[in-house]
Design goal:
- InterPro entries: Cupredoxin, Phytocyanin-like, Phytocyanin_dom.
- With 203 residues, the protein is α/β, with parallel strands linked by helices.
- It has a domain of 103 residues: Sandwich (Immunoglobulin-like), CATH 2.60.40.420.
- The chain has four helices and eight strands, in the order αβαβββαββββα.
- Strands 2-8-7-4-5 form a five-stranded mixed sheet. The chain has a three-stranded mixed sheet with strand order 1-3-6, with no helix packed on it.
- About 17% of the residues have low confidence.
């Protein structure tokens, strides 16, 4: 029984890790319904599309095009600006092509068919590193330490009425709000939930 439980726990953790990794990536269809083609109106179509998307390491670009009509080549920034396809970093002739963004920084893509890049079939994107939950900032102010000697209360008044005492001045400090940890909380909750379900099924 313990062996089966160990296997189930291990399988649950593996599935949770795989699911968490798949949530981190986004698939972007280049140009959306336009696809990868000579855009009407020129290169502004792809630059506008890129400005509406956020690209992160491990995201996937999908270039939809017909074989023999287009291709997609990753090129340097200089080659992108000059529409020079002589030394591409990589090239794919079969569509649709999926490209996984494996590094942060600028990435440039063109179609190498004659005249296509100069007619606007080119894409430049900026890829950011995988996001992680930021660590909380250090406290900006420290609370005063209590004194080692206590002040005795004032003696009662001789008339029998209590003397109103003013509350001691208090020093209040407010900390900044905690960083948004909803994403990391959701990612951490999945393995716990799956493990709880597995344990519940065994009992």
């Amino acid at each position: 029984m313990a062996t089966n439980l160990n296997k189930l726990v291990l399988a649950t953790l593996v599935v949770a890790a795989l699911l968490r990794g798949s949530w981190a990536q986004t698939t972007h269809v280049v140009g959306d319904s336009l696809g990868w083609t000579i855009p009407p109106g020129g290169a502004v179509a792809y630059s506008s599309w890129a400005s509406q998307n956020n690209f992160t390491v491990d995201d996937i670009l999908v270039f939809n095009f017909s074989n023999g009509s287009h291709d997609v080549a990753e090129v340097t920034k200089a080659a992108f600006e000059a529409c020079n396809a002589t030394s591409p970093i990589s090239i794919s002739n079969s569509g649709p092509t999926n490209i996984t963004l494996s590094t942060a920084g600028e990435h440039h893509y063109i179609c190498t068919f004659t005249g296509h890049c100069t007619a606007g079939q080119k894409l430049a994107i900026n890829v950011t590193a995988t996001t992680t939950a930021p660590s909380p900032p250090p406290p900006t102010a420290t609370a005063p330490t209590p004194s080692s000697t206590a002040t005795p209360p004032p003696p009662p008044s001789p008339t029998g009425t209590a003397t109103p005492s003013s509350p001691p001045p208090s020093e209040t400090t407010t900390s900044p709000p905690p960083p948004n940890s909803a994403t990391s909380l959701a990612g951490a909750a999945l393995p716990v939930a799956l493990l709880s379900i597995a344990v519940a099924l065994l009992h």
